[in-house]
Specification:
about 170 residues, alpha+beta, 2 domains, 4-stranded antiparallel beta sheet, about 50% helix
Length: about 170
């Protein structure tokens, strides 16, 4: 549906921050972000790796994350003994430097969503200052095709305003 969206009768394009929640988690933890697609883990389905992150950052404990994963697996008709644990352990084995469920841990989702929202508001402000309408959708923005470079610069600048030492890809 988005490919048919127009703004003032003009075709649009969409740019998004790649791996934003996980990159934010690395940045907030003061850790260097690994290169590449952070959800691409050999032998694993990318969508399930994203599901592990979502389930994990919304809760304070491993057990709660596993419960959420088990529920998603049942809903997808993919449930089998040990599957949730295997997905969880594989994902966090790859991202052990930012493992969220240590002793005294708290759910991080609220902090990540707040940081995400502040960056989005900054992007929208930069676009408004240039009189360019932009539509935010999660970690992406839609503008008229002719303004994609302005959007790219606004997204890059907004990210650097908050996380100058952390790289993020925009696609």
């Amino acid at each position: 549906m988005r490919q048919y969206l127009t703004i003032e009768g003009q075709p649009t394009t969409e740019l998004d921050y790649r791996n934003m929640q996980l990159v934010l988690h690395y940045a907030m933890s003061g850790k260097v972000v690994p290169d590449g697609d952070l959800y691409e883990i050999e032998g694993q389905d990318r969508d399930w790796m994203k599901a592990v992150l979502t389930a994990s950052l919304g809760v304070a404990t491993r057990d709660d994350a596993l419960g959420a994963l088990r529920k998603k697996l049942v809903e997808a008709n993919l449930s089998r003994a040990g599957r949730a644990e295997a997905l969880y352990d594989t994902f966090w084995g790859q991202h052990s430097r930012v493992y969220p469920h240590g002793e005294g841990a708290e759910a991080l989702w609220g902090k990540l969503q707040y940081a995400d929202s502040q960056i989005a508001l900054r992007v929208l402000r930069y676009m408004l200052e240039q009189n360019v309408p932009a539509i935010p959708i999660h970690d992406s923005f839609i503008v008229q095709e002719q303004h994609w470079e302005k959007l790219h610069m606004a997204m890059r600048t907004a990210w650097r305003d908050f996380w100058p030492l952390t790289r993020i890809r925009i696609k």
